[in-house]
Amino acid sequence: MLSCTHILTMDDLTPDDIALILDTADSFAEVNERRIKKLPTLRGRTIVNLFFEPSTRTRTSFEIAAKRLSADGVNFSASASATAKGESLRDTAKTLSAMACDLVVVRHRYAGAPQVLAECMDAHIVNGGDGIHQHPTQALLDLFTMRRALGRLEGITVGIVGDIAHSRVAGSLVPALRMVGARPILVGPKTLMPARPDVLGAEVAYSLDEVLPELDVAYMLRVQFERDAAMPIPSVREYARLYGMNAARLARAKPEMIVMHPGPMNRGVEISSDVADSPRSVVLDQVNAGVAVRMAVMYLLLGGEGSGAAA
Amino acid sequence: MALLLKGGRVVDPAVGLDAVADVVVRDGVIVEVGQGITIPKGETIDCSGTVVMPGLVDVHTHLREPGREDEETIATGTAAAAHGGFTAVCAMPNTTPVCDTGAAVRFVVERAQEQGLVRVHPVGALTRGQEGRQLAEIGDMLAEGAVAFSDDGRGIQSAGMARTAMEYLAGFDALYVGHCEDESLAGGGAVNEGVVSTRMGLPGQPAAAEEVMVAREVRLAELTGCRVHIAHVSTAGSLELVRQAKRRGARVTCEVTPHHLFLDEDAIVSYDTDFKMNPPLRTRADREALVAGLLDGTVDAIATDHAPHAAHEKELEFELAPFGIIGLETAVPLVVTHLVEPGVLGWSDVVRLMSHGPRAAFGLPEVRIAPGMPADITVVDPDAPVDVDVAWLKSKSRNTPFKGQTLRGRPTEVLVGGRWALRGGEVVPL
Ligand SMILES: [Zn+2]
Questions:
Q1: Closest CA to A293 of A106, A46, A32, A80
Q2: What pTM was computed for the model?
């Protein structure tokens, strides 16, 4: 059993919860190798994907996870919030409550939206990404992928490279890594760093080349400079030269270092095409892990016991 | 008709008073202050155990009328002011439409005469539509009764425009009220930039977004000779800039709000939008520096920045919700609970910071507990509890982070020119 009712941020989870989720996901991953990938486990349960922001990848991953557990998955696409004079988040929550759903996955442009839902709904809430805050299932699937590729999590050094300040992936991955005993280093120009990375428990480096030899994982973030009016870097070209992962850098890294990316990738910017397609890249393993980890989260939140699930 | 306020502790440092005394009011004017007074006919109010002070003034109130009467009106806002122990408020100009013409000022003055429970002093806009591009008709507004000028809510972004505004005002010896926020630095920040913005994944406003503009305003005050008042100072750095400017002899004053004095960013535990204000709640060190500024004279006024908002607008995602909280009714109880009871401030300091200081900064008529002065008087029972809840609040809006708290120090009587606005803790309708 998990110690929490909702997964809004990584803070909701204990290290034991994380271990339970990863172990449960391991057994679901086996199911996903089978020809018939469906289990009857959550038959009759209703899982709503409440997406205020379009995200085909994340939504599809949650949708497949729900279907493989035989839950009734429903997509509820809401227009991006009240500025559009639509109904407020609370109204939407009340509407969904009236429909008696069991679990709600919420993706929202603004931080804190999952918490608002958790405050005014009975259902279990899973944060599918809120603003630049957190995306806990992404962090969990990343841990899952690292554990499979490296055989351990404790003691590994993970460089998270790029636009940290605007990344909900970094927002949840840093505390997740801390909880499993790994060492996160945030890497990027100072203009892309959060105000106080120390409160997240992360080290900071401004030069990728300097920290590269220490890394067991190079986690390349997607460059999204359209978010900012004042361009925080001189050019995409300079960014790629200083912070992009390419064959030359890979050659200088530990031989077992893996390269990760939450997708979708800008090939040639934060990651070169040959690296993205090399055996050192585990990007597709991350996508694959996403389904198993989300199955585990749904299963455990809705009352499942331990990892016997896949039996 | 005579009125005797009997046996209260009368505090007015401007006339050297801090003693149990009786105050007699006749025809709206204080006629006698002394001991053992009785009056043959008229009314006697037992004020024993209370503090009797010159009427308190809030120089930073948003009354929302015209335009957002669903959030507050001149009638409800002044009722909240009376309930909070104030005899006068300065009404900020960011209404809809913006108060940027003589006619708009006249509307506020006339509506306040008809419906206001306390005195209302309009603040006019500095620039047309508060757009920061062209001066508003300041001379006209002065003629209609505006007491100061401000683009509060925005802040003039161009230093050149701010200089022009100050030079123009200096010709009238009128007051410039600065909302200090460099928007290119503040961005869309919803909270203070730092620990909380990082942890909550919210865009932050750095302290420098405020301090850069405070530095600009005090330098321009020195360049132009204009009287400048810095609204809602929230950082230690801003306060230090004001302190140094005062030492150099600049004509600069400033205010702090109760929420910046009594809350810091650590109070933002969830995404409760009643903690979203502008400037945002800063750090504990900033908060402590502001309290120190009350004592050393750097801070001239405690002002509420009373900003009512409709519930459905505050109940938005944190980043989308409007800034601001109501403050008229909680200011005195917060000051009593957190500063007077622990002995940080004496009652004469309260009078300095909530009556004389703000009046001097804004050039408002003096109010004294002395014969011949208009009877603008506030009486506070320092021991009476105040439950900050929906039933108790008179403001039309409810957006306060202090709800649910029990404080001490309840305003019981408010006299405005000898007329009851608050009596026995109850608001007296017109
Ligand atoms: Zn302001």
A1: A32
A2: 0.92
